[in-house]
From TrEMBL:
NCBIfam families: amidohydrolases. The lineage of its organism: Bacteria, Pseudomonadati, Bacteroidota, Cytophagia, Cytophagales. It comes from the Bacteria. This is Amidohydrolase. Keywords: Hydrolase, Manganese, Metal-binding. Residues 178-273 form the Peptidase M20 dimerisation domain. Its cofactor is Mn(2+).
Length: 377
């Protein structure tokens, strides 16, 4: 199943000109110019730097929404192929350029075979990597009249056989959020630390306590990871005992309920450790991703469509440990996210030498078309 060259060329152009989350201004323009040739019934901007396409014009029929993400990462590319990133320190290391190309190919297929009934919406979504794009789309006035009966999305999966479809009911991706804890003590001369309040030891005890909360087995119901990301303490001035520090940690759990429980545990530990220390604490969360909950009917749609196309299918037993803001869509609508294998020996996501496998564009677009046809024929 070969991919028409114009979609490979389009994907590689997006790869050459990556933009990080929330800054996809030129990416939006490139996608808009390219997909306009496929004559959507409506095309409008959404979520700031995203795009919304509509096919069909039957408000009485079913509504399906399919989403692709379009943002890149702040990673320096090390590849030297002809379509390598032309922007220092920014590159498509998660395959969102490929996801956008898949959705563009689907647009071309929908132009050739418009839905017999209902409406189909294609969303080119910005800012997935920061967990902000799905929220921006869902709260955009352009989205207000859309009430999808089904929502679908995919992600390419390095390490899996090329073209295999991977899905599961219930949790498909983990709940993820990052915690920032600020420790405010009091500086002093380093020869007289007793005249200040140095947060270093409290920060160390807190970091070690986080390790005790972990359950690293992703198959366990109480799976939890607390991964230290960044820490800072004081200044590089050796006559001063530090008075301020920060600990940043990313939390991952199997579902949203476990995330709430883990968050309460961590705040209790902070309160107990800091009692009587004289250190003021501030905590905040950032880049939150709710767990992606695949509805059983939508999962069944994916499985049946994969089998109908003759694709290999794997029903995964535990969620992926990474976060995906498509989970916000599946909180509100019946839907499913699935994976498509990118090759067993390909570089991993977010690796500096990663590149999207162009051989996935056509089979992925055909699977989306099959999902559409199940409800719109």
């Amino acid at each position: 199943m070969s991919t028409p060259s114009i979609f490979i060329d389009f994907r590689r152009t997006l790869h050459q000109y990556p933009e990080v989350s929330g800054q996809e201004v030129e990416t939006q323009k490139r996608i808009k110019a390219f997909v306009s040739q496929f004559a959507p019934a409506d095309l409008r901007e959404i979520g700031g730097t995203g795009l919304l396409l509509q096919y069909g014009n039957d408000d009485a029929g079913p509504v399906t929404l399919i989403r692709a993400d379009i943002d890149a990462l702040p990673i320096q590319e090390v590849n030297e192929f002809a379509h390598k990133s032309l922007l220092d320190g920014v590159s498509h290391k998660c395959g969102h350029d490929g996801h956008a190309a898949i959705l563009a190919r689907l647009a071309s297929l929908l132009q050739q075979t418009p839905p017999a009934r209902g409406n189909i919406f294609l969303v080119f979504q910005p800012a997935e990597e920061t967990g902000q794009g799905a929220e921006a789309v869902l709260h955009d006035p352009a989205f207000s009249a859309i009430r999808p009966d089904r929502v679908f999305a995919l992600h390419n999966l390095p390490g899996y056989q090329q073209g295999v479809i991977v899905c599961k009911p219930a949790e498909f991706t983990a709940a993820v959020k990052s915690l920032i804890v600020r420790f405010k003590g009091k500086v002093s001369h380093s020869a007289e630390p007793e005249k200040g309040v140095n947060p270093a030891y409290l920060m160390a005890r807190f970091t070690l306590a986080l390790k005790e909360l972990e359950q690293p087995d992703p198959g366990a119901e109480h799976f939890a990871l607390a991964t230290p990301i960044y820490t800072t303490l004081g200044e590089k001035s050796y006559g001063i005992s530090a008075g301020y520090g920060e600990v940043h940690v990313t939390l991952r759990t199997r579902n949203n309920q476990r995330m709430d429980e883990l968050s309460r545990q961590i705040l209790d530990i902070l309160a107990n450790l800091s009692a009587g220390s004289g250190i003021e604490l501030e905590s905040a969360y950032t880049e939150a991703f709710v767990a992606n909950q695949n509805h059983p009917e939508a999962f069944d749609d994916v499985k049946r469509s994969a089998h109908a196309l003759g694709y290999d299918f794997i029903e995964k037993q535990e969620p992926f440990k990474w976060g995906e803001d498509f989970g916000l869509f599946t909180q509100h609508y019946k839907g499913a996210m699935f994976g498509i294998g990118a090759g067993e020996n390909t570089p991993a996501l977010h690796n500096a030498d990663y590149d999207f496998n162009d051989n996935l564009i056509e089979p992925a677009a055909q699977l989306f078309l099959s999902l559409v046809n199940r409800h719109h024929s």
